[in-house]
Amino acid sequence: MNILIVRNDKIGDFITALPACYILKKDMPDCHITVLISPINQSIAEACNFIDDVIVDDKQQSAFQLAKLLKTYNFDLSFTLFSNTRVAIAQWLARIPTRYAPATKIAQIFFNKRIKQRRSQVKMPEFSYNVQLIQAAFPNIDTHYPKPLLKFAEHETQQVYHNFCTALNINKPVVAFHPGFGGSSDANWNINEYIILAMSIQHLDVNIVFTFGAGDEYFYETFMANKGDLNAQAYFSKGSVLDFAKLQASFRLFVSTSTGTFHLASAVGTATMTFFADSLFASDKRWQGIGDKTLQHNYMIPQDIQTRQALFETIQKDLQQFIC
């Protein structure tokens, strides 16, 4: 069976699609799974042994052009985990026989298997909603998947970490702070608050590293201008998403807001401390990582100033206890 899975949005969103891809391949080893994804996720998709082929969607093709491409694959079945009108029309024009998607938005009229999910009610995590779409087609499928789901050859992660440690003179376990925004995150601490959090553990036997990526230039410059006496290194990732994931696999702890880098860290089995907005839509109830839940330490940042400050003090204590 030739299967298309569509999740052509951001890093964290694609990571939530990986369990769905895995269980399909596990249940039907002979099926051919192709994913339609954004360019930023190409390196991760190509590293997954449960994904057979990758179509990179740069959003520049019209629905008609995309349909022409999809038609060459002769898909039997598609699962659109996140839908928009363009990809819906393209699949309809490509005449994919069976097309599953959530029953939302006007795009649903182009799918012939529409599943009512009401994701806004957040009755389960995002990755579980994705798996639920697979279950609509295959009710008896085993939904279990390994944690961590993203695994790399040991020599690859060791080499990446060795290069990182050599470049930054690292000789202790790394606690990484990633202060940038991204994805669906709409709550975070500011740079100075991240620096204060880091200072609360700099007396412990760890190396502190602040990580930055594409689009984080402002955060990097602000950090460098305000870090003061904090004994920490700054690392600007210029490689692929896969390169950063391999590096994260060796971190002691990854501290960030709820963004794609958090989802990567969870997927590779790294312990996380993550900050979510105090709303159902943006909460960890919906956007928790796909990894081991016991390794995820999640906090909802309130809008009230006094409550926010109290939570910040709690996190400082929790961070120290976690490292110890």
Distance, first to last CA: 50 Å
Taken together, the total number of domains comes to 2
Task: Give helix and strand order, one letter per element, not per position.
Answer: EHHEHEHEHEEHHEHEHEHEHEHEH
The tally of beta strands, per DSSP, is 12
Q: Could you give the order of strands across the largest sheet? A: 3-2-1-4-5-6
Sheet-strand content, in percent, reads 15-25%
- Roughly how much helix do the residues carry, as a percent range? 25-40%
- Classification by helices and strands: alpha/beta
CATH superfamily of the largest domain, called what? Glycogen Phosphorylase B
CATH architecture of the largest domain: 3-Layer(aba) Sandwich
Low confidence ranges: none
And the CATH topology of the largest domain?
Rossmann fold
CATH class of the largest domain: Alpha Beta
Query: Average pLDDT value?
Result: 95
* Computed CA radius of gyration, to the nearest angstrom: 21 Å
The biggest sheet, with number of strands, parallel, antiparallel or mixed sense and barrel status, is: 6 strands, parallel
Number of helices: 13
Shape, per Cα inertia axes: globular
